[in-house]
Amino acid sequence: MQSDTLKNLTLVVAIFFFTSNLSGSFLPVYFKETGLGVPEIAEVLLITFILIGLLPLALLKSVKNFERIISLGIFCTMLFYIVLIYIKSPVILGLAYGLSVATFWPSFNLLQFRLSESKLRARTISFFSIIIPSIASIAGPAVGGFIIEDFSFSTLFAVAVILYFVAFLFSTRIRSQPETSKFSIPRSRIFFVFFGSFIILGLSEAYWIAYPFFVLSISGTVLSMGLVLASSAVLISAMTFLINWVSDTTKMRVDLALVGTALSIVWYFAVASASTTHEIVVLSLLSGLANAFSISWFAHFSDFFGREQYASILVLMEVGLMIGRILNLIPTLVFIPTAEYASHFRLLGLVLFFMIPLYIISRKHRT
Length: 367
Prior knowledge:
Elements: H1 2-23, H2 27-33, H3 38-62, H4 69-86, H5 90-114, H6 121-150, H7 153-171, H8 189-203, H9 210-219, H10 222-231, H11 236-250, H12 253-271, H13 277-303, H14 310-335, H15 341-352, H16 355-363
């Protein structure tokens, strides 16, 4: 049963992430073209982040089979793209966007945890969360940029709707398990170390608004932006798999996550000085390497809790990310309207330094 579920999940994830890469990086550009300023886009994201953080909590308490929500998440993502075509209200866009992310990601993460053993977890997570998305991002942004340039955003969204519907149909074949435990907050010290780390990670994200606008400002056109993003993904998947193979065999997950954070800090300060598309592509390899190392922290997170607790800790992870992402909107509103990308990226790089004490603490709790 697990083998069939893994195969179906692989197919669904491949279609889902290819479709997401067709349009995901261009959403801030689309919002801007429809007349939304940075404050209105921040309003969309604020509503989105609140739903991402709180809706999974409510669903976990009311839905017996939380893993099955992945199908609802894909269907809601399809509906979000329909909403994009016809509605421009920041409130409605935020609600639709938040509903799509809040229903897909927690159930998707839960399936990754449950379908993998500890000795293979980093490889499994990297395969589904980085390698498949990285491969999808080789063609996705380039094709998406081409469709936008030669046709329109509406055409791109219509294509996305069709592909998401196909992914939804296949997702109904994924076998899932009902929850056997009620929602609970772990009372161990290590959980709060992880929770604090997710706040920092949410606060240091740049891909919601800042990085897409930054790449567009240097690329000049949507098509060029798509080609730059596509070029950035060529080597990332191979690096990710090799690095996380080491993570699984040596149990050095904290050490690898520390290396990932260090590389991310270097990337933030380096990209702040980038001024050409070639520099962005080269630096994206550094970013990909950083993400490959950093996924070890996510695998490390699961090692400390039993399978019956996975659903609870994953929705609490989303709460931590929500807090960080909402805080992230403050520097976004300060720096992005005036295109002060360098200051924004340097600030996020400084924020990541606060992960280091958490790694030091977690060393004392190795499993």
